[in-house]
């Protein structure tokens, strides 16, 4: 048995557990070793009850005061106690654990560790871990316990045990980075990093381990980008697309004038398309800056030159929106260009017909989701490819779509505000264009941060906006009620809202669990103003464009990341009318206030990303990735910007100062790199 053996080689991992690990994409012992914790439980000394802050997970030490109460319904028994120390009393509840009554009734000091939440304006501790006698807590004090990503049936304990077994197979001397690189960048060795990522002794050792893992992730990614660039050299432009006078006329006919930034970016694209080499370009622009029209011009250019263009959107809702808007726009202008939609939820027959039209070249502009890169699709003459919101797709999918044609031109759209220096490293294979200006007719969105007491005022405000012909979004974090989370849910919310708003106002509901056809009809009705208020989860987060919507109210705003709130807010302020964003939050914690304040005072994505980073600081690095860009497992592009720069420098150093292909010291690194590349490139051959 070694680290390449199947996970079932470990003691205690039978067929059933192996299947559960499969679900987490853990097949070998090596995979298990890189199943890093999602976060860590840090067992800090108990705090005084008076100091226990909302939203934090803390330990408190005290005695049970009064009787242990059990109540609730049969399905949902609730055990309640009050714990007292010299500073105050805290209500504590557990769900479905009536058997706790015995332990809790014994008397003496008890330590409880759990999350402090606010319910009906009262702070309480929910579902804590119990340490009785209190001396049991000492064993855990100041340790960091891993919290693994799990699947139903697999416990945190089971994963931890398996990981500990796997450690015994780890050769402490094996490393794929030569010592000189570790020394140069202050990195610990591989085996140490793996062990401390799973079971850090204290914060400092965790930081060291994490830095190494982040460095590795970036290094391999950057090396693979450089290899792709070097291996492919610059690809010849098989589809030189001429500038067509019809496109200039089309631009002149648009209901608005392109901004200077849009004109500049379009000019850069036109120049690329005529060049000797194929285009690979990233267009970066804040929410609502008008990236779509630039993509449409590119698709049109391919079609008018006798080729095909394809646009791949990250969600079905968005693909359908783009399809409807683009088709309408082209028809209204009178272009003889045929469009096609291709998404996963289409029926087999519908798909087959679409495939035929795509293959025969009857359609020139194809819009869809991942379905565009399915095996069965063959294109007639695919010359231009747009992928929307790059961070939703890895390099792999982008390449897969590109692989469908004879190296078509590629345009990647992104609303993620990455500073240019980092973008150059991360999108090393792409040239970068930036739309750094919003359309002139826009009024800045007016923001406010309010508590739930303001809700009725907000509703009246919405009614006034609707009376003036406008529409509104209300965003809730959840689809339906959950016993563990007190947060607004779309279904109950919409029901209650109906009684407040009256029959005149149509309310629609949108969430990820709905069937595609239902989602489509709701989105269509909203875009036609047949629905005035859309109560939705974050499914509307990216790209949805209904310029007539002028109000967005985000319930439980504290539950969302700043970048996500900024994207959500971007659903309004897309037309001429004044728009408003209401951040609703019952949370009174200082952190929430500070975070929401950043959004309250700025509508600028770059500024928000920067401030967010300052606020978070190193304390937030416990395995939680904030930005989710580009599918790194542990690394976070924003937080780990410095390590990213170091890895980029190291990649240059490795490739330039030595003979990477021949030197034995890079043997292991090369193996890893080829494996990574073959995995990420797998779909290219589809
Ligand atoms: N120059 C312009 N002047 C006025 N309106 C414009 C201009 N360019 C685009 N628009 C309009 O602005 C709205 C937002 O544009 P678009 O959907 O392209 O934004 P985006 O950059 O893709 O944003 P997101 O990242 O949110 O998807 C659309 O309704 C579009 O028609």
Automatic annotation (TrEMBL):
Residues 454-614 form the Helicase C-terminal domain. Transmembrane segments: none annotated. This is ATP-dependent DNA helicase RecG. Residues 272-435 form the Helicase ATP-binding domain. GO terms for biological process: DNA recombination; DNA repair. Belongs to the helicase family. RecG subfamily. It is an enzyme of class 5 (isomerase). The keyword S-adenosyl-L-methionine does not apply. It catalyses: ATP + H2O = ADP + phosphate + H(+); Couples ATP hydrolysis with the unwinding of duplex DNA by translocating in the 3'-5' direction. CDD domains: DEXHc_RecG (cd17992), RecG_wedge_OBF (cd04488). Keywords: ATP-binding, DNA damage, DNA recombination, DNA repair, DNA-binding, Helicase, Hydrolase, Isomerase, Nucleotide-binding. The gene is recG. PANTHER family: ATP-DEPENDENT DNA HELICASE HOMOLOG RECG, CHLOROPLASTIC (PTHR47964:SF1). Plays a critical role in recombination and DNA repair. Helps process Holliday junction intermediates to mature products by catalyzing branch migration. Has replication fork regression activity, unwinds stalled or blocked replication forks to make a HJ that can be resolved. Has a DNA unwinding activity characteristic of a DNA helicase with 3'-5' polarity. InterPro entries: ATP-dep_DNA_helicase_RecG (IPR004609), DEAD/DEAH_box_helicase_dom (IPR011545), Helicase_ATP-bd (IPR014001), Helicase_C-like (IPR001650), NA-bd_OB-fold (IPR012340), P-loop_NTPase (IPR027417), RecG/Mfd (IPR047112), RecG_dom3_C (IPR045562). GO terms for molecular function: 3'-5' DNA helicase activity; ATP binding; DNA binding; hydrolase activity. Its EC number is 5.6.2.4.
């Amino acid at each position: 048995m070694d680290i390449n053996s199947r996970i079932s080689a470990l003691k205690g991992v039978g067929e059933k557990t192996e299947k559960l690990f499969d679900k987490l994409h853990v097949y070998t012992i090596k995979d298990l070793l890189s199943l890093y914790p999602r976060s860590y439980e840090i067992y800090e000394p108990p705090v005084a009850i008076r100091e226990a802050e909302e939203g934090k997970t803390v330990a408190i030490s005290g005695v049970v005061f009064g009787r242990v109460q059990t109540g609730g319904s049969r399905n949902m028994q609730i055990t309640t106690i009050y714990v007292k120390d010299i500073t105050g009393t805290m209500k504590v509840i557990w769900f479905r654990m009536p058997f706790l009554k015995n332990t809790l009734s014994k008397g003496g000091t008890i330590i409880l560790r759990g999350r402090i939440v606010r319910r009906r304006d009262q702070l309480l501790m929910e579902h804590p871990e119990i340490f009785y006698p209190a001396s049991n807590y000492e064993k855990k004090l100041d340790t960091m316990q891993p919290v693994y990503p799990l699947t139903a049936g697999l416990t945190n304990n089971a994963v931890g045990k398996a990981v500990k077994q796997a450690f015994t197979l780890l050769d402490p001397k094996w490393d794929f980075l030569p010592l000189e690189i570790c020394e140069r960048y202050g990195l610990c060795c591989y085996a140490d990093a793996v062990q401390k990522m799973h079971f850090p002794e204290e914060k400092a050792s965790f930081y060291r381990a994490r830095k190494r893992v982040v460095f590795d992730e970036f290094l391999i990614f950057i090396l693979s980008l450089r290899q792709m660039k070097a291996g492919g050299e610059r690809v010849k432009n098989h589809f030189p697309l001429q500038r067509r006078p019809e496109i200039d006329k089309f631009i002149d006919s648009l209901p608005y004038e392109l901004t200077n930034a849009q004109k500049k970016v379009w000019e850069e694209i036109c120049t690329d398309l005529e060049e000797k080499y194929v285009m690979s370009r990233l267009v970066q622009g804040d929410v609502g800056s008008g990236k779509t029209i630039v993509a449409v011009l590119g698709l049109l250019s391919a079609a008018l030159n006798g080729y095909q263009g394809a646009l791949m959107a990250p969600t079905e809702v968005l693909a359908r929106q783009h399809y409807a808007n683009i088709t309408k726009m082209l028809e209204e202008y009178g272009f003889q260009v045929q469009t096609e939609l291709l998404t996963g939820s289409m029926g087999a027959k519908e798909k087959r017909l679409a495939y035929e039209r795509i293959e025969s070249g009857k359609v020139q502009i194809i819009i869809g989701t991942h379905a565009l890169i399915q095996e069965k699709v063959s294109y007639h003459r695919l010359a231009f490819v747009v992928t929307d919101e790059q961070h939703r797709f890895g390099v792999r999918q982008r390449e897969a779509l590109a692989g469908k044609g004879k190296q078509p031109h590629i345009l990647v759209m992104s609303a993620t505000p990455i500073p240019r220096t980092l973008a150059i490293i991360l999108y090393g294979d792409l040239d970068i264009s930036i739309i750094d200006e919003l359309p002139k007719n826009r009024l800045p969105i007016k923001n406010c941060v309010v508590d739930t007491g303001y809700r009725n005022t907000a509703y009246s405000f919405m009614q006034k906006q609707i009376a003036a012909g406008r529409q509104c979004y209300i965003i809730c974090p959840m689809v339906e009620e959950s016993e563990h989370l007190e947060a607004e849910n779309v279904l109950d919310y919409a029901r209650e809202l109906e009684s407040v708003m009256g029959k005149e106002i149509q309310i629609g509901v949108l969430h990820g669990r709905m069937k595609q056809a239902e989602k489509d009809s709701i989105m269509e009705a909203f875009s036609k103003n047949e629905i005035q208020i859309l109560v939705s989860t974050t499914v509307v987060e990216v790209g949805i464009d209904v310029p007539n919507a002028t109000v967005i109210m985000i319930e439980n705003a504290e539950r969302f990341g700043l970048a996500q709130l900024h994207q959500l807010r971007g659903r309004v302020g897309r037309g001429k009318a004044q728009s408003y964003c209401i951040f609703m939050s019952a949370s009174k914690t200082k952190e929430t206030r500070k975070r929401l304040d950043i959004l309250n005072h700025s509508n600028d994505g770059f500024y928000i990303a920067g401030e967010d980073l300052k606020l978070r600081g190193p304390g937030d690095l416990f395995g939680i990735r904030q930005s989710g860009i580009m599918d790194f497992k542990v690394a976070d592009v924003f937080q780990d910007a410095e390590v990213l720069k170091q890895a980029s420098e190291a990649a240059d150093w490795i490739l330039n100062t030595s003979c990477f292909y021949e030197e034995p010291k890079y043997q292991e690194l090369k193996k890893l790199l080829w494996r990574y590349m073959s995995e990420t490139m797998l779909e290219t051959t589809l």
